[in-house]
Amino acid sequence: MYKKISTLGAVCTLALLSACTTVPLSPKGQGGDKSAGSDVPFDQVRDSGPAVPVDMMATPEVTPVREPIGVAGNKSPYVVNGVKYRILKGVKGYREKGQASWYGTKFHGRKTANGEVYNMYAMSAAHKTLPLPSYAKVTNLDNGRSVIVRVNDRGPFVPGRIIDLSYTAAQKLGYIDKGVARVVVEALDPAALPSASETLAIEKDAAARQALPQDASFKLPANTFLQVGAYSSASQAEEVRTQLAAAFGYPVSVSPVESGGKSLYRVRIGPIAQQRALVSLRESIEKKSFGQPQVVVDAGE
Q1: In the prediction, which pLDDT does 52 show?
Q2: What is the dihedral of CA 240, 288, 70, 236, to 10 degrees?
Q3: What is the model's pTM?
Q4: Of 30, 66, 102, 139, which has the fewest beta carbons less than 10 angstroms from its beta carbon?
């Protein structure tokens, strides 16, 4: 049994120390920053697919798993363009018809609402009120095609549109050229899904027997970590680091940072390379009462 780590020594929340605090709330949120390598304001940059179209039809489907719902991206209510939105407390039975759009290069590599990094080649989506992360089945009503997506972002904040799919998911549904499609979105009940740890173990066993052609998980950006806490005491942070190192098979580091004129000590696990491994590790950390770790992608590491 591992000792439950106190958060009383933390001087500020994880959200304030992670690298996602300056990122617009969502793909369709308010962005006053400039696009990379350009003097054009970000909100004036036109979104698109890759300069040379990429055939993503063979991309494996995601394997839905039961994931912990963290703080990042789940503030409720929140306001965008004067409209107030409330995050759903439960998704069982959620079903909605409307228009789906998609987003691509403009947001590729930028932070999503829950602190991950948007990958237009992954099977992901943005939604205004589903908890992050969630899984949903999206069906194109015009051609009958369906996909499962992992919802890790907020948007689209355009009247009539209910979901924003990644470039790959939209291509598989057959509406890349049209831009929008009539769809029905059905949330998958987390209670009916296997845990990430169970699924990871099954996939590893199947891969060993060559029963799976490839891992359905996608590669994470370099320097992806789980931040367990930020502490005012270096000794407390070191104690936490020691416990985590003994409990999990990943590197654990303590790094000092200045915030509001005070010295804080961040405790992070990683780097972590694969999405499925990250989900499984996060689940294990919470089960062992180490709190709710937040995903951090640190370009400065």
Answers
A1: 82
A2: -10
A3: 0.64
A4: 30
The one-letter amino acid code at 259 reads S
CB atoms within 10 A of CB 2: 12
301, two tokens: 């590491």
Q: How far apart are the C-alpha atoms of 98 and 271, rounded to whole Å?
A: 39
Question: Which one-letter amino acid corresponds to residue 34?
Answer: K
Backbone angle region of 291, left / alpha / beta, with phi > 0 → left and psi within -120 to 50 → alpha: left
Domain positions in the chain: 23-192
Rounded mean pLDDT of 32-55? Answer: 67
Token look-up 């003994």 returns 246
In this structure, which long-range contacts are made by residues 235-239, counting pairs with CB atoms below 8 Å and at least 24 apart in sequence? 236/9, 236/265, 237/265, 237/266, 237/267, 238/265
C-alpha span between 269 and 257 (Å, rounded): 16
Fold type of domain 23-192 = Barwin-like endoglucanases (2.40.40)
CA angle 85, 90, 59 (to 5 degrees): 90
Mean pLDDT of 43-55: 79
Spatial contact of 275 and 152, defined as CB atoms under 8 Å apart? no
Task: Give the C-alpha separation, 284 to 250, whole Å.
Answer: 12
Q: Where are the alpha helices (DSSP H) in 28-166?
A: none
Structure tokens at 238: 């070191």
